[in-house]
Amino acid sequence: MRVVLFPFSVLCLLLSSFFSPLYAANDWYRPPVSVTWQWQLDGVVNEAYDAELYDIDLFASSAELIQGLQASGKKVICYFSAGSYEDWRPDAAEFADKDLGKTLSGWDDERWLDIRSSQVREIMIRRLDLAVQKGCDGVEPDRVDSYRTNTGFSFRANNQLDYNRFLAAQAHQRGLAIGLKNNPDQALSLVDDFDFAVTEQCFEHSQCRSFNVFISKGKPVLNAEYRRIYVDDEAQRNAMCQQSLTMAFSTLVLPVALDGTFRMSCLP
């Protein structure tokens, strides 16, 4: 009898997939178009907003916080970076040096990841398992459009599509909804794999129309705008919000730090 020996890292990946909680087909949360939401990734989460969905940090948020939000009728999306290494995360030591690329512009404590790496994918599987353990209804993996950036690695658009579809499939296997973060150029290719989109400054950067495909499929677009003029000038904010309502987007005006210091919603 021939015995096949697997490398330890491959064996761990196989076991993780085998023992992960699997759900029946289509058995996960699907947020509706024009869903109301709150997005806060830093500071003590303000639980008082009348929003159907909260998007909060996976690592910084306790299971008790998540359960408390759900007990008040809210769904909870848990944020983590899937395309960058953050040196303050509790699993930072699990990344191999060879998988760490260039530092992100404006984010000195983050480095791009080699999304082709099996070890990176194993870590993301464990993060999805953590989301299940904490009771998240879904996830928002960030930095999933790094193929357009000088990361220090030579991967291309097809590698990004493969990685993003891997994340979506693994999330769905665990009964988790998953959102496509930014990445307007691949929205059309990925809309069937993801349950919603999360965009930043799509009105400011004239990228919103790329995400209309989500609305046409009955999937919401959660958009955040950071321009100070939307905070200070009511007429400017109202004009932008009218565009958002016409497109059926769920747009918030938020602080760029996403620290909960203020929130203005375009939805009623």
TrEMBL record:
Residues 1-24 form the signal peptide. The keyword Lipid metabolism does not apply. Residues 36-259 form the Glycoside-hydrolase family GH114 TIM-barrel domain. It comes from the Bacteria. It holds the Pfam family Glyco_hydro_114. The keyword rRNA-binding does not apply. Keywords: Signal. InterPro entries: Aldolase_TIM (IPR013785), GH (IPR017853), GH114_TIM-barrel (IPR004352). This is Endo alpha-1,4 polygalactosaminidase.
